[in-house]
Design a protein that fits this description.
3 domains; 32% helix; Dna Ligase, domain 1; D-amino Acid Aminotransferase, Chain A, domain 1; Rossmann fold; 361 residues; globular
Length: 361
């Protein structure tokens, strides 16, 4: 079977690697000739809107999926008119626009920070009066890893934030004084079978995910799974869905969802019975889902900007190195390490060593 993937980044590469033992080959469409997924499958190099390449992808692939939200919706709809596309392009259209995303959460009774659409400077004044300070002004689309947003701590910050972000539709959200950030990785197949990985606790630095730790049995699990089930059912979802939450007290507030495999689920590659990447392929290909239970205490550390020395990473007990094949660049994710441990103390020690290597690089 051939699975087409819109995008050729590290997520596409890891999907392809997960598919190889299943006899699944991946065919990528990406505009970058040096897309890192090219080492794991065939690359169709061209614009995401290239109709000839889209039609070739649809013709050759049994099913098409995508690795990130910024794929043009029109391209996915063209593909869907010619064959199966999972997740449904409707999920991507909602997830790529923070306003529509928050509206869906509200419609399904999933709590969120307060939010207001911002189209003019006057809207921002009215929004601040409604939401209060501090607040976060964000672009509605094309934001990731902390990009496209500004924190407003007092009224004097409004002019600079609006000037920096105006030109695109915006959304103002209330700033959440959260106790921690968590995410839930869910997967649902074509027949409605939904499964969940353990809740994951995340640490971000400068808006970029730095570390994730699986938390089996976490007391917030039932709440997170309830909210994810609402989304999966409403969207008739097929594939992996990640939902990010802020925890405030005993409540979870939905921050955003990602209709794809997710950075905070990388620990599943070595840490779960079936990785998020394999389960995504199983779901979109019509295969039975695999077990999502952890096989050990597990976590993940991102390497951003530059890779540490591989020997130093592999010297950490239980560590597994994943190199993306990207050129070093400030703020760019170039790899990660997962770690498996026999218990919480050993996991903390290994993650601390990996985090020190990440900081040193």
């Amino acid at each position: 079977m051939i699975v087409g993937i819109m995008g050729g980044g590290q997520l596409a590469k890891m999907l392809a690697l997960a598919g190889q033992p299943l006899g699944i080959q991946c065919l990528f469409l990406d505009p970058a000739p040096d897309a890192c997924a090219r080492s794991a499958g065939e690359l169709l190099c061209g614009d995401y809107g290239d109709e000839g390449l889209l039609d070739q992808l649809a013709r050759r692939a049994s099913v098409v999926t995508y690795e990130f939200e910024n794929v043009p919706e029109a391209s996915l709809r063209r593909l869907a008119s010619r064959g199966a596309v999972y997740p449904d392009p409707r999920a991507l259209a909602i997830a790529r626009d923070r306003w529509h995303e928050k509206r869906l959460f509200a419609e399904l009774g999933i709590p969120t920070p307060p939010f207001v659409a911002i189209d003019t400077r006057t809207d921002l004044e009215r929004g601040l009066a409604a939401v209060g300070l501090p607040a976060v002004l964000k672009t509605r689309t094309m934001g990731y890893d902390g990009k496209g947003q500004r924190v407003l701590r007092d009224a004097a910050d409004a002019d600079g934030a609006y000037a920096a972000l105006s030109g695109s539709p915006l959304i103002l959200e209330g700033f959440v004084a959260f106790s921690r950030e968590v995410s839930l990785i869910a997967v649902r197949d074509r027949f409605g079978d939904a499964r969940f990985y353990p809740l994951t606790e995340n640490v971000h630095r400068s808006g970029v995910l730095a570390q994730s730790v699986a938390r089996p049995g976490d007391p917030m699990t039932a709440q997170a799974e309830d909210y994810a089930r609402r989304l999966l059912g409403h969207l008739d979802y097929v594939g992996v869905l990640a939902v990010e939450f802020f925890q405030k007290g005993h409540d979870l507030l939905a921050n955003e969802m990602a209709p794809r495999v997710h950075n905070s689920g990388h620990w599943t590659i070595e840490g779960a019975e079936t990785s998020q990447f394999e389960n995504h392929l199983r779901a979109v290909a019509g295969l039975p889902l695999g077990a999502t239970c952890p096989v050990a205490a597990a976590g993940m550390v991102n390497f951003v900007g530059r890779l540490p020395e591989p020997a130093a990473v592999l010297a950490v007990p239980g560590a597994h190195l994943h190199v993306y094949g990207k050129d070093p660049r400030p703020g760019r994710k170039v790899g990660h390490a997962t770690v498996r441990a026999q218990g919480e103390a050993q996991l903390r020690e290994a993650l601390a060593r990996l985090a020190a290597l990440a900081a040193g690089s």
